[in-house]
């Protein structure tokens, strides 16, 4: 399955590889802050955005 994202004037196509854990439970190492953080908290801290559906799964994607 492929999805398209608009970046400036150029569309980017990604291929979905697999589903991950929910955004509220999927963690990764945030190198700039030197800490582990959930996807939900990353969006809250970095972008000042609150996810509408943090219980939905994350997507692992690659350029497609």
TrEMBL record:
Domain of life of the organism encoding this protein: Eukaryota
One Gene Ontology MF term: RNA binding
Entries under Pfam families matching the protein: PAZ
Signal peptide residues on this chain, from the entry's feature table: none
CDD domains found in the cross-reference section: PAZ_argonaute_like
Domain PAZ: 1-64
Protein name: PAZ domain-containing protein
């Amino acid at each position: 399955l492929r999805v398209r994202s608009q970046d400036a004037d150029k569309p980017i196509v990604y291929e979905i590889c697999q589903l991950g854990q929910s955004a509220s439970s999927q963690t990764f190492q945030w190198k700039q802050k030197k800490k582990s953080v959930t996807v939900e908290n990353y969006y809250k801290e970095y972008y000042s955005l609150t996810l509408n559906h943090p219980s939905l799964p994350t997507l692992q994607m690659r350029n497609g």
